[in-house]
Amino acid sequence: MRKQLLICFLMAGLWSQAQDNALIKTQVRHTIDELVEFVAIPNDALNPSDINRNITWLSDKFSDRGFNTSVLPTDGLPLFFAALPMDSKKPTLLFYMHFDGQSVDPSKWDQPDPYKTVLKSRSGEQWQEHPFSDLDEDIPYDWRLYGRSTSDDKGPIVMFLNTIDLIRKTGQDLSFNVKIILDGEEEKSSAPLPAAVVQYRELLEADYLIISDGPVHVSGQPTIVYGCRGITSMSLTTYGPILPQHSGHYGNYAPNPGMQLSQILAGMKDSEGRVLIPGYYDGIELTTQEVDVLKAVPDDPEQINRALQIRTPEKVGAFYQEALQYPSLNVRGLSSGWVGPEARTIVPATATAELDLRLVPESDGARLKSLVRKHIESKGYRITETVPSAEMRASADRWVTVSEGSVTDAFRTSLNHPFGAHLKTLLTDTFSQPVVQIRIMGGTVPIAPFVNALEIPAFLLPLVNPDNNQHSPNENLKLGQIDYGIRTLQAILTTPLGE
Amino acid sequence: MRKQLLICFLMAGLWSQAQDNALIKTQVRHTIDELVEFVAIPNDALNPSDINRNITWLSDKFSDRGFNTSVLPTDGLPLFFAALPMDSKKPTLLFYMHFDGQSVDPSKWDQPDPYKTVLKSRSGEQWQEHPFSDLDEDIPYDWRLYGRSTSDDKGPIVMFLNTIDLIRKTGQDLSFNVKIILDGEEEKSSAPLPAAVVQYRELLEADYLIISDGPVHVSGQPTIVYGCRGITSMSLTTYGPILPQHSGHYGNYAPNPGMQLSQILAGMKDSEGRVLIPGYYDGIELTTQEVDVLKAVPDDPEQINRALQIRTPEKVGAFYQEALQYPSLNVRGLSSGWVGPEARTIVPATATAELDLRLVPESDGARLKSLVRKHIESKGYRITETVPSAEMRASADRWVTVSEGSVTDAFRTSLNHPFGAHLKTLLTDTFSQPVVQIRIMGGTVPIAPFVNALEIPAFLLPLVNPDNNQHSPNENLKLGQIDYGIRTLQAILTTPLGE
């Protein structure tokens, strides 16, 4: 009798699982159609009219789902905000995503129009195009949608909308109040965001911030990211003769700006990539528990190194995840005179290095830049903000023009935060797979203002495939990730805290 | 009686001087007309048909003056050779000049066509154009001809032709057998010259070589140059990730090629421009007498530094002329990633430095390049000639691709050579001005093969103004330099050795 009951119970469970799967597959198909429609609206943040047309689409789609929507003016392009009616007894989740995309160069894509989504399956090394009607019978989860922002970041927005639909269809309760803020110039660094976050702080008030941007860990496992590095930049220019000079007439006489620049840069790091500037790594300490979390990330160093075609990585950290716990100092560009077939026999007039500095919470951007400036001065150079005048050049040697980019702060939520544990549990339960926990990711999402100004604990929950060609030609979204995204968002929205 | 005789003699001298001046002025005018005709034939060595049309013109003009002419095939463009009938009792002078010119960008000139010579006078800061008929009454020696190769180096060729005319008109005897070799790709580095000099060594046999190329000393005084530096080049490329990578994901992990390149370059020199690579300056010693000759050059360091807008020059030599006695090591170009508004948040895949090394006779180009290679290896890098393959990158870190340019040797004739003293005496007598002696000039004229293969003592006798904008838009020739050039060549050709 008990055995029969158990079988009955199991069968009911299987049946309900099958019903759920069918419902989700229908929602995946609807997500595909809606995403194709959304991608068709170009979204280059360099073109404000693009952004406005996307906002119109978003207003319609969120209103249809019962959201109250607002367009929030900023110093730059407007933000889009939507919220479901509030219930004061529930905690509030704020989602952040962005609907702008990187500029496209159609000549580099394997399809005529990056805004006209193409469906493809892989056969061997080739990708083969399909009509969307091929999805009518079944949705093969290893097929992909190709188009700008399919993954970064329109896909997650449309998954979010369709998760709301699914929750309605299954009659589930939302365990949270739900707000969503959508950025229209994330790919342009979201310059207006810090001020806007302060201006609209009441509207944005929430207990937890969830950011869905970027891909899951390369292993494909469910992933929670607890923080991301910030960024700032510096540009250094050194000076030789006022105009390029004949290297015969003035080689050995006119100071060489490329050699000066090399001598400034060379001392910034040791030969294994560690910054030598005193104080650069101050304040960073890793506990044994933290190192254990970093080590638990299923990175495959051989695979990473093979992909980069490097034999030995830099030694800032003992392994990849550890390296990301430190600020970087990266020479992203060098230029002086001409190289290659255009090289000329000259002493160049100037040499320029572009640096970017990825920040961690312990490393204030302004502080690191002032350390770099001190290093430059310690080498006997004088710093100016502008191009030195003839008078300045006559009064002193060794000028360096330093210009500084703005600072986007890092953020990092504690690995011990209870909402992190909650997310980890629900992802484990939903997918029966180990969850990858990333203490801080290397790249920058400009949402530190939420964390710092609003003091909302923030978590990145990536939904898309790691090989999505984000920022590149042939950006794509694996259909299986839509299933993953909907299940993840459904679990988050419907699982009460403490369960 | 003696007093009357003396007056008579002086008057006769003055009359003959006045007659000479008139004859020379007529010849200057003819030189101007012939130079305008010659400049009108474009002479970009990148365009072989240009060079052939120039050779046709030269063949006509030299034949008209009784020269036997030959077109000498080489591995590249042909050389033009001409000689007057030989007299075995006389010593032989070989002249070297070139008739090709730098490429032109007409949009950067103040005249529509750089091959259509324009006559200009200065009034205040402005240059005013004149019809050539303005020269019919008088030739103002501070007016200028503007056009490509007016100075570099067609002007001296036409001065040479007209000096032969003048000598005929005055009934003077030539004190030398006269040969002239004209290069058609000097501005392209005369790559075929070394082999051609060996191939045609009997034809080119001579006692002395005179090169007329480049300007007189900036003081405007008569100038003899005893040598010029050679040149070679190296290109160094370092490697980071195989493709540019996101600086967030891989900053602190993927090796940075710009930092590697800076660290390689930085150690090559001290902060005052002296090469630190052991052996680089080996063999260079200056006697007190030589330093005295260098110091006697009327350079104005304040003027040089003001023109370059530098406060302190490099310290290879104690002063400008001394600096030129040493080989240089010049970073003429740097490139990695992107700079300025195009800077991207990447770890670049490669970084490249272009070096040029100006050579002196003590500094063999191959030896200096091997010292630079040793320096690179001493920093822990591996040198390859090609782009390292995936296998090479997997087997070792720190590859540097080094490619080497060809070597154009330096040459330097002894300051004590009797023919130098002869030239100095005749210039002093002709112009009643102190003569500037340059032991070695900084730039390179590719005639070392004559000196090294044919063992002919060589002297540069520049004829044109120092502010001629050689290699630049608005190249020009001051009319007074034509007078200077004709008088100089007349004195050289008609003054027997030992007078």
From TrEMBL, chains A, B:
<dbReference type="Pfam" id="PF01546">
    <property type="entry name" value="Peptidase_M20"/>
</dbReference>
<keyword id="KW-0645">Protease</keyword>
<protein>
    <submittedName>
        <fullName>M20/M25/M40 family metallo-hydrolase</fullName>
    </submittedName>
</protein>
<keyword id="KW-0732">Signal</keyword>
<dbReference type="InterPro" id="IPR011650">
    <property type="entry name" value="Peptidase_M20_dimer"/>
</dbReference>
<dbReference type="Pfam" id="PF07687">
    <property type="entry name" value="M20_dimer"/>
</dbReference>
<keyword id="KW-0479">Metal-binding</keyword>
<feature type="domain" description="Peptidase M20 dimerisation">
    <location>
        <begin position="227"/>
        <end position="381"/>
    </location>
</feature>
<keyword id="KW-0378">Hydrolase</keyword>
<feature type="signal peptide">
    <location>
        <begin position="1"/>
        <end position="18"/>
    </location>
</feature>
<dbReference type="InterPro" id="IPR002933">
    <property type="entry name" value="Peptidase_M20"/>
</dbReference>
<dbReference type="InterPro" id="IPR051458">
    <property type="entry name" value="Cyt/Met_Dipeptidase"/>
</dbReference>
